[in-house]
Write a structure and sequence with these properties.
Structural class: mainly alpha
Shape: rod-shaped
Oligomer: single chain
Distance between the termini: 37 Å
Strand content: under 5%
Helix content: over 70%
Length: about 120
Amino acid sequence: MAAPDEESGLRNFRDFLTVYNQMSEMCFQRCVVSMNSRELTLEEQACTDVCAEKQMKFNNRIMGVYMVEQPKATERKMKDAEEQAEAAVARLKESGVDTDTLTPEDVAREAMRGK
């Protein structure tokens, strides 16, 4: 079995290749107008350069926003999960269950039931 770092690296590489392939396909469809030659015309070459540059800038901008917003979303989800767990503990206490003896898994199961 691959190490977690190796799996993460492979996943990142696969994601990169997916983005690269999508960009290549899109720019090819937009810019290459003639299949009569093995070489790109100057116009096609300029178009693909601009297309690829725009896509890379767009992708970098999206990743920048993601890096800022993802921790906020994760924090909100953690807060919601904590509130659900606290509500589950309160419901259990109301029904007379000794919550001090419950495992975190039991509390989580009760939180899921209370949804």
